């Protein structure tokens, strides 16, 4: 009679029942069987027992089934109303005064049941009833079974104040309503309907079992007031979140299989429910997640069974360990994303300032007289606030870093970042960071150095530092560094070694030149570079580079006068010396090394070594210095010229006058000697005068 | 040696005309700058080397622009040096933009002004889009005219403007002392009516200019020759005609004729030696795949062009010519 899905574990129902009925819920409920029992009893009563009770029983079953129906139930249609009227034989009434089964009677309406006001159990299973009617008089009803009908609305139950079990599964009910008076309700089965919302059940404080499986629920709330609820079945709905479950003080079993729950947050109230011991989540998206099991276990320590499987101690332990790991990972990634965000903002800031600077420089450059360097750079370095994520350190940096972490120093105007083997510098302020005390380990690992938003001319000045502090840097990257002339590549020759060079077209106009790569290969041939901008360098490229610019090198070396060679090379060495002296960590070994380096350079590539790059500022400086000397030279030469012209004039004048003078000399001499005697006297006179 | 004209000039002017003082001043200046280095091997040797290099035309290498343009001889030397160093680029057939040529110029003279290169480019491109690609020979010849005769060209530009706007051509025009700003051209409508100016009138003005000028200017006879074929001409047309005129090129003496521009047997030999040396230097690289043009654009392999041209067919007049110029 009662569909056997429910088992009353606690004997609570039994205790409250006054009618003496023990509600035994059987697992199998074949109507035939119960009918057999019925029949059996009846048979015994009415007829003599035969020797083959089984066979006869069967036989009788067939014979009596239909006739039983005919005997047992008479549905007489009355002309007065459209409802059929039910009549039972009085024997029946006496025997089964409290129960009536009308299943599979092809009923489309509830019949009027007269004279059965003591009825407790009423079974209307498997019919076609569309409305609950004509049962208001059965006020002693305890169990009403309308499973598998076509009921669209809950109604007609307002008088059934004793009702304890209401089975309305597999109907067409769209809304839970009209249950106000059923305060004793113990089991409410609404599975297989079209209910979208949980409502109007808050008064059912004795309800123990609520089945809302296979409905259209999208969320669970409004469960307060169900103070006795121990089992809640919500399988096969579309539930995305669950609330109010912590308001159910007795809830032990909660079935949420085959819903749409995807995160534990949406069922977070479960963690607060201390009574819950058995829960199912299978068939939800959340069950597919890698963190599903241990998150559930970690958050619901009171749980004994998950997805119909007992939870062992081992599992619990694992869950807490994993949950801790998750927490840490989340914290870690949160920190990382914070850092990343900061980095991004800083880079944007640097980029903006770079653009401003470029515009300013462009404006100033049109006016050729003014120098562009100083005035443009001032505003960029002002920024007072420093959001330094790095603690101020005097010792080696390694104490704060481990291999996986990014070293980050964030100030508003520049950014220095160390990421494994790459050192990235954004903004000209970052160049100062090369002065820091880098630990040997970190510095040794750096193989790539990337410059962004920094003027190449500024980078040139720090190349010696780079050479010393990061000896393993083999790959240089330049982006937005204002590389405009082939000459500038000459500056890279002073490094120890470059394997790869990447010049990003953005912000480096030099890349637009047809010959730039060949020039780089030519000038930096002693590095034997392997890759430029990602493409490998082939021997053909090297040969082509040599072909194109080989003569330049030849001219630059062999045709320069010796003193020029010395002075140009000397200049370069002097410059490098200057930087060395300025650096803090000066070691005596470096100077020797420097000499060796340049000697080696000169030995290998004499013909190229004269191709140097002086930044514009330095060049202008040098020219300024020379101006003084030039002035001096000019005046000196003028003096010399004056002297020379005077001498020349005198010489010319002498040339002109000499013949005349010579003749006069001769004439004077001849005149003197003409008179021998007087001349002898004169000579003697002169001799005596001399004494 | 002791020609009458020479003696006729007052001393200072004579020296100035031959630019002797410039070189003397520069020599002393260089001496001062590199005192420590030069004092090691003696001042006499320094002066020898210095004037030798002046003779050979290598004194302008890597010098500042103010020195490079100081004397006609410097300019000629510079042009020649540029040709010799970058002839290979031209030989390879690459067409470069004005900016790239300017870069090459800057390799030899770090502060070479962009204006001059721009003006030279305008001659080649006839004042059209200045970002077009130019061939090496076109650019070189135009650059020669622009650089060597830059003051003269400024005056010519002024004259041209006046002629265009119909002013009296015989008034003395002196260009402003700044580095020859090109004056605004008249509105397009006016110029469009009659293209350029009349050739003969123009030539008359030029002749006057040449007489008056103390700057070097092209030999008037050759200029007349250049103008003989045309009735009317534009400014850039005139310049283009100048740059393509063989006679003027030879008169300058810096560059070989256009046909011989890519030939320089001695240098080619040297280049081959260098290339071979660099090949040997990288024996480890021989295993790499031989793909031409790994940089993604077509390079015409002019292997055959670098084969040694039989020296008999290539006259090398310039070395001789150089020495005869005293």
Automatic annotation (TrEMBL), chain A:
Keywords: Coiled coil, Cytoplasm, Cytoskeleton, Leucine-rich repeat, Microtubule, Repeat. GO terms for cellular component: centriolar satellite; microtubule. SUPFAM superfamilies: L domain-like. Gene3D superfamilies: Ribonuclease Inhibitor. Subunit of the tubulin polyglutamylase complex (TPGC). The complex mediates cilia and flagella polyglutamylation which is essential for their biogenesis and motility. Part of the neuronal tubulin polyglutamylase complex which contains TPGS1, TPGS2, TTLL1, LRRC49 and NICN1. Interacts with PCM1; TTLL1, TPGS1, TPGS2 and LRRC49. This is Leucine-rich repeat-containing protein 49. The lineage of its organism: Eukaryota, Metazoa, Chordata, Craniata, Vertebrata.
TrEMBL record, chain B:
Coiled coil: none annotated. Transmembrane segments: none annotated. Its main location: cytoplasm. InterPro entries: CSTPP1 (IPR038968). GO terms for cellular component: centriolar satellite; microtubule. CDD domains: DD_C11orf49. Keywords: Cytoplasm, Cytoskeleton, Microtubule, Phosphoprotein. It is found in: Cytoplasm, Cytoskeleton, Microtubule organizing center, Centrosome, Centriolar satellite. Belongs to the CSTPP1 family. Regulator of the tubulin polyglutamylase complex (TPGC) that controls cytoskeletal organization, nuclear shape, and cilium disassembly by balancing microtubule and actin assembly. Regulates the assembly and stability of the TPGC and thereby modulates polyglutamylation of the microtubule, which antagonizes MAP4 binding. Interacts with PCM1. Interacts with TTLL1, TPGS1, TPGS2 and LRRC49; the interactions link CSTPP1 to the complex TPGC. Binds to alpha-tubulin. This is Centriolar satellite-associated tubulin polyglutamylase complex regulator 1.
